Amino acid sequence: MSLPIMAKATAVWLVDNTTISFKQIADFCGMHELEVQGIADGDVAAGVKGFDPIANNQLTQEEIDRAQADPMHKLKLKHYAAAQGEEKRRGPRYTPLSKRQDRPNAILWLVKFHPELADSQIAKLVGTTKPTITSIRERTHWNISAMQPIDPVALGLCKQSELDAAVQKAAAKKAKEGAALSDDERRKLLSTEQSLGADAEPRMPTAIEGLETFTLGQDKDDDEDAPEKEYDVDSVFNLPDSDDDEDDEDDQR
User: Fold this and answer.
1) Domain boundary among 168, 194, 220
2) Radius of gyration (Cα) for the chain, nearest Å?
3) If we measure between CA atoms, which residue out of 179, 43, 160 comes closest to residue 116?
4) CA nearest 136: which of 110, 168, 162, 167?
5) Coil, strand or helix: which one is 70?
6) SS3 per residue for 123-152
7) Which domain holds residue 126?
């Protein structure tokens, strides 16, 4: 379904100037019903100027009247050549000014935890350039010492579904090339749903790690074959001879 130009501003206008239900506005503008309710309450889109869909050739007054009379009626976008394909984004992703400073941290996270992703995939996910990605990979970026890896999904630079799709595509490409994957690489190539649904792997406690083959004595087989060793009390305790002690006492007298 095609969406109107400036969908949020159009929703603001419809909320302010019509009695159309929130559900009808949400369906027409590609938004959630609660988001439209937030616009009506003043919590969402504060300061956004309404965009008149009638004056801009996106709706007719007859269509609005029909929707106001029938709450079940779905608004239909008027054929408008400029609105065709508006929902399909082409070219580099637009990143708001408030989040552009977080892009290097997101790139560092992707490079660190998903090195299998190509530069073109990272550029598409966070809306950056290949020279920037290369400088962060090679740690020649001017601010590399102050950067910290942060998940781009947590920063709002991309969706989790987009990241999972890019990871799965990289996994398929690597499997097609026949490259051997380590356990860590194989876990990194899983999507979020797969990794959360996987069973926990048994791990050796850290306190006894490295002591799997350690034993306090010889094996039983070796003990049975080896002859029993006899110990001499004098050799064990290294006691001095009694004659030498008596001679020492006579000399002192």
Assistant:
1) 194
2) 37
3) 179
4) 110
5) coil
6) HHHHCCCHHHHHHHHCCCCCCHHHCCCCCH
7) 97-194
How far, CA to CA in Å, does 46 sit from each of 5, 12, 40, 50? 19, 10, 10, 11
Question: By the 8 A CB rule, do 57 and 47 touch?
Answer: no
In a domain, 178, yes or no: yes
Structure confidence at residue 140 (pLDDT): 93
Distance CA 195, CA 231 (A): 61
Instruction: Report d(CA 141, CA 135) in Å as an integer.
Output: 5
Question: Cα(117)–Cα(171) distance, rounded to whole angstroms?
Answer: 9
Judged against a pLDDT cut of 50, whether residue 83 lies above it is answered with no
The string of pLDDT tens digits covering residues 213-234 is 555 555 555 555 555 666 565 6
Q: Which pTM was predicted?
A: 0.42
Please report, as a single letter, which amino acid is at residue 90: R
Residue that wins the pLDDT comparison between 128 and 93: 128
CB atoms within 10 A of CB 108: 20
Question: In the structure, what pLDDT confidence band is assigned to residue 86 with cuts at 50, 70 and 90?
Answer: very low
pLDDT in tens, 32-52: 888 888 888 888 877 788 888
Complete DSSP assignment for 90-124: -SSPP--GGGGGGHHHHHHHHHHH-TTS-HHHHHH
Dist CA 77 CA 72 (whole Å): 16
Distance CA 107, CA 246 (A): 87
Would 92 be classed as within a structural domain? no
Q: What angle do CA 64, 69, 71 make, to 5 degrees?
A: 90
- Reported as a single tens digit per residue, the pLDDT across 168-202 is 888 888 777 765 555 555 555 555 555 555 555 55
Q: How many domains does the chain have?
A: 2
